[in-house]
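Records of this kind hold a single protein each, on a pair of labelled lines. Below, a sample record shows both lines together.
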Amino acid sequence: MKLIVQVLDACDLMPKDGKGSSNPFVEVEFDGQRHRTQTKLKDLNPFWNETFTFNVLDPSDLPNKTIDVLSVAQRYPLDKRGIFSNISGDISLRIYSVPASSDPPPQPPAAQPPPPTPAEKSQETIAPEKPKKEEKEQKEVRSTYSIGTSFVDPRTTISRAEQARTEPVTVMRSNLGGGPPRIVGSEYGLTETYPPLAARVGYTGDKITSTYDLVEQMRFLYVNVVKARDLPAMDITGSLDPYVEIKLGNYKGITKYLEKNQNPTWNQTFAFSRERLQANLLDVVVKDKDTVKDDFVGRVVFDISEVPVRVPPDSPLAPQWYRLEDKKGEKLSKGEVMLAVWMGTQADEAFQDAWHSDAHSIGVEGLVATRSKVYFSPRLCYLRIHVIEAQDLVLSDKTRAPILYVRVQLGNQLRRTRPSPPARLINPVWDEEMMLVASEPFDELLIITVEDQIGPGKDEPLGRLVVPVLIAQQRFDHHKQVEPKWYNLHNPNSSTVDEKKETKFSSKIHLRLTLDAGYHVLDESTHYSSDFQPSSKQLRKRSIGILELGILSARNLAPMKAKSGRLTDAYCVAKYGQKWVRTRTILDTLHPRWNEQYTWEVHDICTVLSVGVFDNCQISGHNKDDNTPTKDQRIGKIRIRLSTLETDRIYTHYYPLLVLQPSGLKKTGELHLAMHYVQPIPVMTLDYLRHQAMQIVAARLLRAEPPLRRETVEYMLDVDLHMWSLRRGKANFYRATSVLSGLLAVGKWFDDIRSWRNPVTTVLMHVLFLILVCFPELILPTVFLYLFMIGMWNYRFRPRKPPHMDTKLSHAETAHPDELDEEFDTFPTSRPGDIVRMRYDRMRSVAGRLQTVAGDLATQGERLQGILSWRDPRATAIVVMFSAVLAFILYVTPFQVVAVIAGLYLLRHPKFRTKMPSAPFNFFKRLPSKSDMLL
């Protein structure tokens, strides 16, 4: 067997001759055999394209062999020569093996381009070429190995400039067995990766690294179709319905067509991924829309190799007028189109609103649902309505005692007071406060109605007040009360009030309306909240840092549209604080690459970033069966608590996307991320208000373009977290058990000391105990020294990865299918009666055990309280007399003596103990409790 090594080229080498240049060559060594390329004089971007052949003595041992590539100036890195090496650059190789009977195949013509210029080198991509198919008679098998310093998805290609962003070294050793990449992880755990990100390796070759340094650079061919003028008439009417078709290989982008317009304006941008370019020519064709067949008007052809490169913050490329050509390439007498064509990156301003080749199968109408956008939640504020009293109400029936209450409505939020005391008929008093959630700009109408309940389910309105939320006074300090005001109640049949019309008489209501701007309105669960800032902008703290998130890619996603013959149309949503971000949708793939970067200001380190992955189902628009809007399907979600991240450390991990379904736990793929690091409200009220805040946020984001759909917002905000789940109950129980395990471990350790299981340890504890008793000032220093030593010991085992959802802690892997079916059941339930009865009995059994535990705790507490309450006169008398005697003894006895006697008594040898319970324990167990009084 022979091993073939093709040394192609290198780029961005470091000058070594002191004059800004270098004379590089490459030396390849394998199994004692050595070859060397030609020396390229004064060239930092050399091109060799030389092929070397090595003899493989033992083919079975080839996977254990390594190949060393040495570049005198610098070469593509793997193994470091020294810790002070500061060499930079990369080298491109292709390595494969062939049978010994075969000669090295000649280099295909396509793989022998002329030496590229440095500008072209920065744009090239290197992909391992598939060897040509040999004839069946030869049955040759060729193994291709890819050289790299980091894990690279085999379905993608990486540019040499991106590969160069690695730790500088001098000798590259490649495992010819194609061993595992630098990737560490498990099925449900995090997988750490080492992609060539600019923020990690300090690569400063492009301006994009200043703002997009946590993602891999992606190049796009942008085509901006602005307008056309003086187009020739194609219809009998003397006009045409023009549109533009941009063709690049198999990809085709089409603008909207404009009826009867010879000077149309489109202003549409198209983006073609550089990695998927299938042709060298870009064809821009102007056509006339027709019923049978669209007519050809003219075209403009661009050579992609001559397209200029633009990287922000360079100014946008100015569009130019181009004369249309016919199919033979000859200029037309009339007709021009204004275009701008350039090669850019995802940092380009046109990236967000461009038509992407990843969405080439979607028309212009569905394109808006695939774009990346940034959303902001509306500013929310708690609205307090303190209903005090009313005066001069006019009752329709004065012969009966009215049942008066006040109903408050704001949007879809509805609250009402309790009935007024019957003693106050026409001047009722409620003195009750309610809280609602209002959103900026606070122009929504607040409707307050005084009603009389004249029968079951029948209410009669007596007066109504309709005012905007803006009239409520903002309060920043809860210690300062807002003065209440009297408001006129108007005819309940009218929804608006004419302020200019004077009323001689009207009923009145006494209200205190307050916008509590000092609170933060929770729209997330308090456990996973990403923001604790108050509603008032004046009270908010300054930011303490910046969170940078790079959404790189995903792999092995579940095929969500397998039934329709497609794969998955995936997009990501990230939420932190009031800022929501949504990536573009990558169509029909299980391995999408987004490479989009976003930043947030951090005001509180104890907050959580949430990232969810969804399948876009809005491209088709509606279900075929009932014509109802389709819902985006959830693929998975991750949460990252910022306090667990180290400052100025770049985290690059694959996060498993886990979804709990009625059928059990399912891994739906992996998401690749890069990160850089007063007065309480009652809990029940807070849960209700959180639900209302979530409804407001969902309704507001649904009005954006493209809309962030309700199912997406609900999934990101964990709206169903409060629902009963036996699985979650078990998880919380074992969490509590784990927290108490430390105390149990200390108790077991002390019991082992008392039992003299290890006499040496027990004797040492006796000595330590006597020292601390004789020198009590050493107690606190010893305790804190012990805590310090424990903390330093645990430093070795500190977590090196951001925390992620733990399937074992959540009991997701061991959950019974019936428990999952109950967890995913609707509210109210939609299951048959026998299943509901079985689940109810199970819940009663679980609640019975909890009730027993709560009763035991209450019993022990009541016995402790009953010692001196004379509930048991004899027991209390004994305790009182014993306390008096013990107080006298302790007054006359030094504390050290008492402590030594008590400690030695506790630590006495088991031979001096009896297995019978002690007298104080028996005495305490026989004390009465209130359990005797329960029915």
